[in-house]
Amino acid sequence: MSKIKVVHYINNFFANIGGEEKADVPPEIREGKIGPGLALESSLGEEYEIVATAICGDSYFGENIEEAKETLMGMIEKYDPDLFVAGPAFNAGRYGTACGTMAKEVEEKLNIPVITGMYSENPGVDLFKQDIHIIETSISAAGMRKAMKKIADLGDKMVKEEEILSPQEEGYFERGIRVNYFNDVRGSKRAVDMLIKKMKKEEYNTEYPMPVFDRVDPMPAIKDLSKIKVALVTSGGVVPQGNPDKIESSSATKYGIYDISNLESMKKDDFMTIHGGYDRAFVTENPNLVVPLDVMREYEEEGVIGELADYFVTTTGTGTSVGNAKGFGEEFSKKLVEDGVGAVLLTST
Amino acid sequence: MVKEIERAGIPVVHLATIIPISLTIGANRIVPAVSIPHPLGNPKLSYKESKELRKELVGRAFKALQTEVDGQTVFEN
Question: Could B41 and A288 be called an inter-chain contact, meaning their C-beta atoms sit closer than 8 Å?
Fold first, then answer.
């Protein structure tokens, strides 16, 4: 009996071509399995065979989405797969976007089951969770085996057209799809049961979760800026030369507060950028492009603002978890309040 | 970070290039910046012109701080 054919999509890194310096490699396809394909094939079992592995550099894909999508599609089509698996991409944003794009495209063009995997904060999740099944994975490739098992289990069900259970049961991100089913208990009783549990402060599960929006109301307008102390904050990774606090160039776990009280401008001899998510050439030459100290001093001199705070606050925005960024903000905002700061300009690259 | 600053009671302006991201994270006062690798200025211009552009963008941020807003507002000019 012939085996069920799988095509697998991976990036430059997982194909062992290379890291960031090889992120610009164009699409290619190779026969058989590579890297994480081993774990995928063994999880899928003997009925399945990875007939080919499609590969593309993450930057190449990100910068040439339409062309890369079309080229890869042509390559994948030739193998006439029964199942398409992309990644998993864990917390890699460009890779996640590529996996989501390809999975969606293959599903639309070939009308076969597709599946991928990502960490919850990967931007690819919000972009594609409504279109395709994305298995929730750990943050890094350390969770490869577990992720592949879930991907294989769900993929197998999809191929065999078995019933796909809820996101919680199968481990994929909620797709915003409602499924009708018969419950033994009628709605009114379920609602009252839930209410009683809520009143008793017991745990209960809503049947209709509301979307969570963490919003903060805007502060009222400032009446007289000429009496206000203004502070500069940035996620653009500008730090003193030598990066004394060793702030990470991506996925920051810390921020820095650095003195500028005696400076008129951000000189390139004094400051550098360590941000790993943009071309640093311009900011290396002129850090005022991210921390606009030179023009702030002019506004201070002209009396437009009361004064500029003695320091600026900085970290790296790229890959930094929402939890960490929130923690930084909570912590340094206390200092800003204590120091009488009445307004903040926050610059992002 | 923008939200936490505002939550702490300090009015804040987000000067950012990718406006959809700024809107997603919940900034209320947003001033569009020039480009990802050079948000406040443009190296293609002369040093003086680039600095004038930076001064104008910061000035726009000051205007945003002095403007009442109901919700998320992008200050295009």
Answer: yes
